[in-house]
Structures are given as structure tokens and as C-alpha cells.
């Protein structure tokens, strides 16, 4: 079946077309530039931008894939988690398409979509797989036995998400928003051992994470430098901060695989685009005999193909479609791939 996927949980209007693990179309319109001067996503601005981008983005995706609306077999849409107004635009559009085309509608989970998208690049996920989900709003270790029906949370961040920590530290260092890619780039010229920043919840025997202490440590370091007139190396701070983040992420991910006897790890979400995370994960997985899968950076950040990919799984599992009064859920739990 051919699945149309619609994503509007944050500031990207994403439309994807997928058949099984085959990616046919993937168009993204971002309002990120409109939020840059506020240093974070402004929900009302995002909703408005989704409204304006929705129809043209759907049309571009269909054109690029050479698909006619009548060819679509089902429509998948992000029901949550995300921004209330932004989600509402996508869900409303998806309902309209479902009704107009007479096709079933599936409200799916954005976070599980981040994991499912890897199938479009590397084929079906082995069962079970451990997934490290690292995004702007979430940081979780998951045991995925089945993308549509069996996703278990092993651990979560107790405070900031990994992407949030990157964005906050970028701001402290005077780098543009969103900061993750800028910290990544700055760190390439820095010495990760120049400063030893704390590793939150390191070796505590859980699969939970904490990044707010690290962020505070970076803030204090920057303040101290200002006060004492000590030279501040942005590349060194970026590299040392990044090392602290990816050290804990990769260690706990490998530990989760070992403890659960799972030989496969997938890393996904916006922070999975990070070059150092990809490199250290590859090194540690190789050493532990774990097969690592990380989607290409374009598929790591928000897009519609990830929602179509999860929609394809849900359809293949034979789960019932959502009702046309499907509600959005701003805090849909990751253990619920299908909403409602
Ligand atoms: P969620 O998926 O939790 O709802 P989100 O959809 O806003 O949040 P994503 O789009 O998955 O998050 O990821 C965005 C985050 O990824 C931002 O915090 C951004 O800074 C971060 N990011 C993107 N590229 C990189 C990179 N190369 N290095 C580090 N972080 C990055
Ligand atoms: Mg975004
Ligand atoms: Fe996301």
C-alpha cells in the first residue's frame, strides 16, 4: 500500500510518500528562519506557517513522486507529541484528505516515526532492536520488538533533552539558533579533553539521562572566563560539552543492548545527525559486536517520510484506522505508536 505521511509537530511541515520500506517522496517546508530571532520556536508562528505550507508541500511531494491522489491507499499523520496548534493543522489536513479520497486515516506517534524512518534507508528493523532517540524535545532508550505494536521505554532524560542542551549551550557560546549543527561544526576545531565537564547519571545503573547539570557547568565556565578575563575557546568548550553528551549517550545505549541481549542499535532523532555521536557510536558498537544503524542526517530531523514509514508498519500490522474525530495529544507517550 502507498502511504501519505503528514508531519507538523513542531516547525517543519513534512510530507512523505512511502510504500513499505521504499521512499517515494519527501518534501519539507521549514519555518525555522521565522523563529531564529526569538531563539526558539514560537508556537503561533509555527501553526500559521504550517497552514500556509500544507497544500503546496503535499502537491510538491505528489509531483516529485509522480503519484496521483487516487493512488494513495492510506494517510498517516502525527497525532503527537508536539505543539498543540501545530499538530492540529496537520491532523485537520489529514482528515480532509482522508475524507476527500475516501481512504483510512492513522494518527501515529512522532517519536516512533523517528525510529521507523531508518527502515527507508536500511530496510526492515531487526526484531528486537534497541533505539536511542535523541531529539529536540526527547532523549529515550527504547526496546523495540515491533514498531507498530511493541515499543518499551527503558529510560528517559530526567531534565533537558539532548537537543535542548545543544541549543542552550550554543546560545551561551553566541552561536546561531538552532544550535546543534553549529556546536557540531565548532567542535571539529576544538580539543574534547581541554575541559572535563560532568557526565550526568554516568554509571548509575539506569538508562536515564540528565543534561541540565552539564549545561549549568558550561554556563559557569563561560561566566568565570568573563570575570577573570581568561581567553574563551568556543571550539574547545563545544568539543568538551559534546564529548560529555555523546559519551553518556553511547555508553548507556551499548549497555542497554548488552543487558537485553540485543545485537542491533538504531540511533535517530535530530541529534543523530551529530557527527561525533555517529563516530563514537560506530566505534563502541563495533567493539561490542553490535550492528549500528543511523539514518542519513536529512532523515534524522523532522520530515513526513518518517510518519509515512510508521504508517506503513501500522497498516501492515492490520491495526484499525483512527476515527475521523481523532484528537491530537501533545504528550502522546512513546510506548503508544498508534494514537487513540
Ligand atoms: P521532538 O522530536 O522531541 O519532538 P524536534 O522534532 O524539535 O523534537 P528534531 O527535529 O528531531 O527535534 O531535532 C532537532 C534537534 O536536533 C535540535 O535541538 C537541533 O539542535 C538538533 N540537531 C540537529 N542537528 C544536529 C547536530 N549535527 N548536532 C547536534 N544536534 C543537532
Ligand atoms: Mg525543527
Ligand atoms: Fe522530532
UniProtKB/TrEMBL annotation:
Main subcellular location: cytoplasm
Key words, A-Z: Acyltransferase, Cytoplasm, Iron, Metal-binding, Transferase, tRNA processing
Binding site for substrate: 133-137, 167, 180, 184, 274
InterPro entries, per the entry: ATPase_NBD, Gcp-like_dom, KAE1/TsaD, Peptidase_M22_CS, TsaD
UniProt xrefs under Pfam families: TsaD
Cofactors required: Fe(2+)
UniProt similarity note: Belongs to the KAE1 / TsaD family.
Protein name: tRNA N6-adenosine threonylcarbamoyltransferase
